[in-house]
Specification:
It contains eight helices and seven strands. It is α/β, with parallel strands linked by helices. The protein has a single domain, classed as Rossmann fold (3-Layer(aba) Sandwich). A seven-stranded mixed beta sheet has the order 2-3-4-1-5-7-6. A hairpin with a 2-residue loop joins strand 3 and strand 4. The longest helix has 21 residues.
């Protein structure tokens, strides 16, 4: 009888591990004070906001990233800020994959990035997809050999045409826009909470 009870508990624990994986929330950006308020650093901004809310210190150096661990919406999470610069983000994420069971990472990876193809402030959650011209996502897809990971993209396209897109994403938001940017970051943070609490499909229906 005891053996049966132990076996049942082991099955429940294994199922719980599948149903409730540790989440890896990776915000994309470029390290250093010079890039802090640039459009390309919206992923970092969301990670910083999540960390502040959850009381997580994102400062442990691992896999060429700054990482912090804690809990959010009942899940174990790791908040990750790759320090490789945007175009090599995949090197950091693939290092994380090498340290854990790969299926676990692919099912519980959420990447947050800016998106020039979306209007300023728009949010798009997706279960999977192409890089869409974003070099950070392109690097991650190449390093993982898969586009089967969740992503949250935050629009940065202004109402006027953009001439030099490379320079535009590396320019800082004007000070006059920063209060609005903070509101957009808050909405992105709420979308992350929704993904963890309700699942990606319900979050998509609410925030897309």
């Amino acid at each position: 009888m005891l053996a049966k009870k132990v076996a049942m508990e082991n099955r429940i624990n294994r199922q719980s591990a599948v149903d409730d994986p540790q989440w890896f929330i990776v915000g994309l950006g470029n390290p250093g004070a010079d890039y802090e308020w640039t459009r390309h650093n919206l992923g970092f901004m969301v990670i910083d906001k999540l960390a502040g809310e959850a009381g997580i210190a994102v400062k442990r150096r691992e896999c060429r990233s700054l990482i912090g661990s804690g809990r959010l919406e009942g899940h174990e999470i790791k908040l990750v800020k790759p320090q490789t610069y945007m175009n090599l983000s995949g090197e950091a994420v693939s290092c994380l994959k090498a340290k854990i069971e790969s299926r676990s990472l692919m099912s519980s990876l959420l990447v947050i990035s800016d998106e020039l193809a979306l209007p300023f402030g728009a949010i798009r959650l997706r279960e999977r997809g192409s890089a869409g011209g974003h070099n950070g996502l392109k690097s991650i897809i190449a390093a993982l050999g898969s586009n089967e990971f969740k992503r949250l993209r935050i629009g940065i396209h202004p109402e006027h045409p953009v001439g030099n897109s490379r320079q535009f994403v590396l320019d800082s938001f004007p000070r006059s826009m920063r209060a609005e940017v903070e509101k957009i970051v808050d909405r992105a943070v709420a979308a992350v909470h929704s993904v963890l609490k309700d699942g990606i499909l319900k979050a998509m229906s609410e925030y897309n």
